[in-house]
């Protein structure tokens, strides 16, 4: 009896062990199957990113994505904004434009587009024409490219062209029509364009961007204005990415030609990034006057607190009128730290050899050099 009982117990334990092992095997297989299914689904979704994408605002961390439902409704043909629609193009590349493009060879990446405003019907047409000198990827080929743009201060709507195949000179030739902007409203807009490159599995990485302030452009009443713009690189020498804004700084500048001096007023800064998760921001502004790369003067504002700082502090710089085009104003926003070296939050440059709004600000000041009028402008920090 004892042998039978002992044998029965061993059989029962063996059966139970087999059932337990089989259960574990089933659980492991089920988990592996689900992981594989999720991975395949993810790869499938990534393969369709050229039709359905989540778009990040250009140089802004807000509004990270576009809802999928809106994308499916539009199918890439109509913008999510009801005041805009994509229309057939009214521009075709001609020989004269190709000649002008050839003059830009061996230069940084550039973007060609046109602006036209119908003053009678209050309609704005933006035609994205082409890009030139698109940089190659690390594997030696040009990426598929796309142009995205915004009409600031409205950063909630992002408009985009179709993705073009790998080439150094992609031609987009797509026109967008905006309805309802009055002439006064038009002068308050800033067009921000970004060129994006794609690989097989990414959402697109920004190659460069440029800003166009409409109040500084001349709109012809009967024909579009064709513009070439050099694209600012994605990152500067300090390695900081421009994919997201580091804040904005509001500056007023005046050149007094008779007295030969620059009058700079640091008004305020908004939406500054935090350099520390635990300490409150203590920003201040450092202004550096340079001529031909040589530092002439350095001034700084008082320290304040918060990511939305107000200074209203002015500086006077004596300059030589004959060599005014050699001067540059480097504006740096730093965070004061009692324990370590002050960290740079962001910076921008104003001068004749700069890019983007820095050059636009300088050019507008020089246009008003004899009247001595102040020119105020908002700049994005990088």
TrEMBL record:
Listed GO biological process terms: calcium ion-regulated exocytosis of neurotransmitter; vesicle fusion
Domain C2: 107-229, 245-366
UniProt GO cellular component terms: axon; exocytic vesicle; plasma membrane; presynapse
Highest taxon listed in the record's lineage: Eukaryota
Annotated Pfam families: C2
GO molecular function terms noted in the UniProt entry: calcium ion binding; calcium-dependent phospholipid binding; clathrin binding; phosphatidylserine binding; SNARE binding
Entries under InterPro entries matching the protein: C2_dom, C2_domain_sf
SMART domains: C2 (SM00239)
Listed PROSITE patterns: C2
PANTHER family linked: SYNAPTOTAGMIN, SYNAPTOTAGMIN-7
Record protein name field: Synaptotagmin-C
Gene source species: Stylophora pistillata
Gene it is expressed from: P65-C
